[in-house]
């Protein structure tokens, strides 16, 4: 297993995250001209990349983690352009909670991930 800091989810939590992400994606809008739908799609993309990262961590494979970090950063950069500031864990969890139940483990994983990305442990957010 890689010793790089990461999302820190168990295999069961990673599986639950994939279910949450699928449920969220099924409930959000798809009209990218609608700012709310555009925002939701980027939150969904971020969540999907968090899920990939968690799966890679649990599988013990380091391959792909850099790509997963880039996908998360790209989504966060898009959200920053919309918000005019860096997205916070509260921004992401508030958006998610409009459509799905957000378990505490996910709130904490998002907080850890944003900190990792901000400090450069998984790549810096621009």
Walk me through what this model shows:
The chain has helices at 11-27, 35-59, 65-83, 89-97, 104-119. It has 126 residues and is mainly α. Helix 2 runs antiparallel to helix 3. The chain is globular, with a radius of gyration of 14 Å.
Question: What are the key terms here?
Answer:
126 residues; mainly alpha; globular
Structure annotation, total helices = 5
Please identify the structural class as seen in this structure. mainly alpha
- Provide mean pLDDT, rounded: 88
Radius of gyration, whole Å: 14 Å
Strand content: under 5%
For the report, how would you describe the main beta sheet? none
Helix content: 55-70%
In short:
With 126 residues, the chain is an all-alpha fold. It has helices at 11-27, 35-59, 65-83, 89-97, 104-119.
Please specify the SSE layout and strand pairing.
Layout: H1 11-27, H2 35-59, H3 65-83, H4 89-97, H5 104-119
Helix pairs in contact: 1-2, 2-3, 4-5
């Amino acid at each position: 297993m890689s010793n790089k800091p990461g999302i820190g989810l168990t295999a069961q939590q990673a599986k639950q995250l994939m279910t949450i992400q699928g449920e969220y994606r099924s409930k959000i809008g798809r009209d990218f001209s609608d700012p709310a739908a555009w925002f939701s799609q980027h939150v969904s993309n971020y969540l999907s990349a968090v899920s990939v990262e968690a799966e890679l961590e649990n599988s013990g494979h380091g391959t792909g983690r850099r790509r997963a970090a880039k996908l998360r950063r790209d989504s966060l950069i898009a959200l920053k352009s919309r918000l005019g500031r860096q997205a916070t864990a509260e921004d992401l969890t508030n958006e998610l909670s409009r459509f799905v139940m957000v378990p505490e483990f996910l709130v904490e994983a998002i907080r850890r991930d944003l900190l990792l990305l901000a400090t450069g442990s998984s790549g810096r957010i621009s």
